[in-house]
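Design job #97: recover the sequence.
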């Protein structure tokens, strides 16, 4: 049986690895991706550069194993959007998570829809970052260009087009377009037509691992692979993380703590937030299951910002310094919303807040409040799950934040559950390989594959006394966040004194 070539296309990096059936990375290659900006609000990947960078990364990973590879399994970021005309010419480049242009027309966009109905149809809260409001922005900004649109591509469908020549994608990536039916696992005709488009402009949806496709001959040649190598569409990058962490069983959460962060759990039927806050995002996953939970914009970002304010400082040094402060940071509370947040009511307007500061606080207290603030931001997601009948007894966690035992201890105490810390730094690549080996019939289920491919990690357990302390701390954090909502909105409209 052959090997799996795993490819993960993220916003900042592309990674590729040859992975064996035990989850071992035989090779690993990484390439950085540059984001280009026409203005302060745009943030795109250049289409040709994206694909060439991916091919270069894949070739390095393949190395001397070309003859052993049977299948390519891919994951990529959600929220990408690129428009093509009748001849296949680019009308736009590929948008990324950091592209905020749709914020300019977001209020007008919401006026076209009932936000609650939109949420119930798609599982996507009414955030400006989704594909639908981005399409609305392009339509308002340049009607002539918009009228030429023949094909809409997301990051996954663009990658699959270049690999196979087919206009195809997977349901988990397309679920974040806000144009995809949560109930039917298909494009929502009503929503598509409201944006002046038709479903034939969108990619066909395929099974993430059961269906496979042939590589284009020129791609096989460029990569040095055999002509019989197949490709599967896989899942989005967050779904690959969930598979690679192995936390997809009932009652288990999956956490990633990197530049951004997420907390999700697998469910067999869609779960939406019963409250008007629409706190849960629910996306299609594999085998007719769903991932529900949420994501945060600000994981490492506040720490990176803090590091940049002190020339010569490093993040590991800052985290070590945080250990000198007591739990609760001497009543200092940090709201880590430096890049806004994924809260539909105020996420567009939220900003960072350091609350309770006085002249007795030290730098160590400020740093610890950042770690605790990000942890409380994650706790807002867990509370939304609990409020909607989903109890988590444990969670598996990966990402750069796992390198800090202090941060893992804080997070376990804030969430009040044990955390199993992944031993694998490349969980998304392993998650892709899980699907690859399922397609190759090496494993019958994802659970079987995960048990063979993912080793157990260290368990960080919460301490009862600190769980109680952090329960009160989180309550104050939550009160502060929700009470500041009108102030955030007022502040966003505040004019600079000097223009």
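Job complete. Output follows.
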């Amino acid at each position: 049986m052959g090997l799996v070539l795993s490819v993960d296309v993220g916003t900042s990096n592309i990674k590729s690895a040859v992975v064996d059936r035990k989850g071992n990375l035989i090779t690993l290659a990484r390439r950085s991706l540059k984001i280009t900006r026409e203005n302060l609000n745009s943030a795109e990947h250049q289409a040709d550069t994206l694909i060439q960078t991916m091919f270069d990364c894949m070739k390095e990973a393949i190395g001397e194993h070309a003859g052993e590879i049977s299948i390519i399994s891919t994951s990529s970021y959600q929220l990408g959007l690129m428009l093509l005309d009748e001849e296949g010419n680019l009308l736009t480049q590929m948008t990324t998570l950091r592209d905020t242009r749709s914020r300019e027309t977001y209020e007008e966009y919401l006026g076209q829809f009932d936000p609650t109905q939109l949420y119930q149809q798609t599982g996507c809260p009414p955030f400006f970052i989704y594909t639908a409001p981005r399409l609305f922005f392009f339509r308002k900004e340049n009607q002539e260009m918009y009228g030429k649109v023949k094909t809409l591509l997301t990051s996954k469908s663009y990658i699959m087009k270049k690999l196979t020549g087919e206009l195809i994608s997977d349901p988990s990536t397309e679920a974040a377009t806000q144009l995809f039916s949560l109930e039917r696992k298909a494009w929502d005709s009503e929503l598509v037509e409201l944006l002046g488009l038709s479903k034939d402009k969108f990619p066909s949806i395929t099974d993430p691992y059961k269906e496979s496709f042939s590589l284009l001959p020129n791609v096989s040649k460029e990569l040095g692979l055999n002509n019989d190598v197949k490709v599967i569409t896989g899942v989005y990058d967050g779904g690959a993380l969930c598979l690679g962490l192995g936390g997809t069983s009932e009652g288990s959460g999956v956490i990633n703590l990197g530049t951004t962060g997420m907390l999700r759990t697998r469910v067999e039927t869609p779960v939406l937030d019963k409250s008007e806050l629409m706190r849960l995002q629910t996306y299609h996953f594999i085998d007719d299951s769903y991932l529900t939970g949420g994501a945060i914009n600000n994981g490492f970002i506040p720490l990176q910002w803090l590091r940049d304010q002190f020339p010569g400082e490093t993040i590991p040094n800052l985290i070590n310094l945080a250990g000198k402060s007591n739990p609760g940071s001497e009543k200092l509370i940090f709201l880590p919303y430096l890049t806004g947040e994924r809260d539909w009511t105020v996420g567009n307007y939220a900003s960072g807040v350091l609350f309770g500061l006085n002249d007795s606080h030290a730098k160590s207290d400020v740093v610890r409040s950042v770690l605790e603030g990000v942890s409380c931001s994650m706790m807002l997601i867990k509370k939304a799950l609990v409020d909607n009948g989903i109890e988590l007894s444990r969670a598996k966690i990966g990402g750069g934040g796992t390198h800090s035992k202090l941060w893992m201890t804080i997070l376990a105490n804030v969430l009040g559950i044990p955390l199993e810390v992944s031993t694998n730094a490349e969980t998304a690549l392993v998650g892709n390989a899980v699907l690859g080996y399922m397609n190759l019939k090496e494993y019958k289920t994802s659970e079987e594959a995960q048990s063979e491919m993912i080793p157990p990690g260290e368990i960080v357990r919460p301490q009862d006394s600190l769980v109680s302390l952090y329960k009160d701390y989180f309550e104050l954090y939550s009160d502060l966040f929700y009470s500041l909502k009108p102030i955030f909105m007022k502040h966003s409209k505040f004019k600079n004194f000097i223009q």
